[in-house]
Sequence to fold (484 residues):
Amino acid sequence: MEYKSTRSNFTTDSLNAVLLGPAPDGGLFIDPNMDCTSFDWKACLKLDTISMSKMILGKLLPDFKDMDSLVEKAYRGRFETDDLTPLVKVGPAYVLELFRGPTSAFKDVALSILPRLMTAAMEQSGEQKKVLILTATSGDTGKAALEGFHDVPGIKIMVFYPHNGVSLVQKTQMTTQEGENVTVCAVKGNFDDCQTGVKKAFRSLGSWAEEHGYRLSSANSINIGRLAPQTVYYFAAYRDLVNSGRIKVGDKVDYCVPTGNFGDILAGYWAKLMGLPVGKLICASNKNRILTDFFNTGVYDVKREFFKTSSPSMDILVSSNLERLLYLAFDKDQEKVCRCMEKLQSDGVYAVSSDILEKLSKDFSALCCTEEESQKAISDVWKNYSYLMDPHTSVAWHCAMQNMGENPVVVLSTASPYKFPQSVLKALGQETHMDEFDLMDALNKLTGVPVPKNLSGLKGRKTRFDNVIENNGIEDYVKEALWK
Ligand SMILES: *Cc1c(COP(=O)(O)O)cnc(C)c1O
Fold:
């Protein structure tokens, strides 16, 4: 199997694709024949989650010699349960808890294994250079990546997050990170500025890095090593519904995904292409409803106001992974992808035809949720079902409730409520004038839901990184920080 760029005929194997991150032409890697892969998805449903991961990752990343042992080391004993991503019945839907990993965010599922994939790829391909990972984060990727990559030999990692654009818990998680090979830096701008800056650094610093013995790579969901592990929990949720007698093998299930960079939901689409009977993938957005507008009108227009919301990890206007979906929707016509991406670059907008829109609507629905609706969802779900959700999950919950059809619906829950105690307490009508750790305690007293240890343990940790740079300063910063 070969991975191919969405923008040119550049192809490579899965080892190199994981090491590269984005393709050299600025495109993203995809398996162009994903839709006709032969994958025994029914056999996969008989497995436990860790065994499922081995089978699915073995299929999607076939060049890794020792996938089984990589999966074991990444997951066994590292999540709250070896089930990794438990499925919980909540009222009329099912909540897929993706936040039971070491940093309490769904990014852990992929970032627990990505560093292992990278080191394995380096060893197998005889790569002599070290790897420098540049990562833009809207809050959760940063910490999950730092946790996964700290002190991994041969790898350095630099994380850029939006100054004042993440929750205090998220910020504390990152700025107190231990490890000799990590750097964390705030950027005066929003997530899109961080992502644009990092993408620019990729283009301009490649040969500079090579000269200094490094190759650049990415831990963002543009890396196939991020996407592939995320397909697993779509299968796991389906298996759990089968095993609990709720559905029969072959019945369709809808998945509602709180979406930012379009990575999580794209992984669901991959699962569908591999044969899993997915009904609709519901793309849930917050007030930054660019994807809702795109799926409903065919116009992707970033020339709009950017809102900071209580679901910061979804405050994104340039959803990178949509490019992969476009490539498939355009019947693998890379020229069409290039034209859209050029229009996006030059005019801040592109449009697709009504045929394409119709095609997309077979697999996707798209809805959005206001701040008020998101808060109300947290409070309603707590009052009615005693289930506590974070402000990203509540966006998806709200959208799922607007879209209830015949299929069972799985709502993907992407973060622990304790990462956002202020928003959650406010939604529950409580006082929130305290520091973030007192807020965690207050939320715990009110609900009895346990605080994840990795979060309660942050209190009193020393800040190691307090740099704030201008939003055009990422390239210079990288050059300096490499030597620290
Ligand atoms: C990253 C993130 C999302 C968005 O996921 P994408 O793959 O970027 O669409 C949603 N919720 C939380 C809590 C996240 O950390």
